[in-house]
Write a structure and sequence with these properties.
Blueprint lengths: L4 E10 L4 H18 L3 E8 L6 E8 L2 H5 L5 H10 L3 E11 L1
Antiparallel strand pairs: 1-3, 1-4, 2-3
Helix pairs in contact: 1-3
Length: 98
């Protein structure tokens, strides 16, 4: 039986005046994660056009262990530090993908 891949989906609500700064930070972080983390299979970022300041990020990881460690990597810690002042809400969900 093969291990399931894990999707880490995160919804962010950002104060309207910080949307541009958040957008820049999230794209920079995604590029760094895809470059530096061999267990990451890809990152997607979506911005809700109907609700300014709402973002969805998703990162696909090779397994549970890699997904659990995603926010403890250097890129994950740097991103969290950079956006902490902008984020009003953050919800993380993990999904098994077969």
């Amino acid at each position: 039986m093969s291990a399931l891949m894990k999707l880490v989906a995160t919804v962010f609500e950002v104060d309207p005046e910080h949307i541009s700064a958040f957008r820049a930070a999230v794209f920079a972080s995604a590029n760094e994660v895809e470059r530096a983390d061999p267990a990451c299979r890809g990152v997607a970022i979506a911005e809700d056009p109907e609700a300014p300041g709402f973002f969805l990020t998703s990162a696909l990881y090779a397994d549970d262990q890699a997904a659990a460690a995603h926010d403890r990597t250097a890129a994950g810690r740097a991103f969290e530090e950079a956006v902490r002042p902008f984020v009003k809400l953050k919800r993380v969900r993990l999904f098994d993908l077969g």
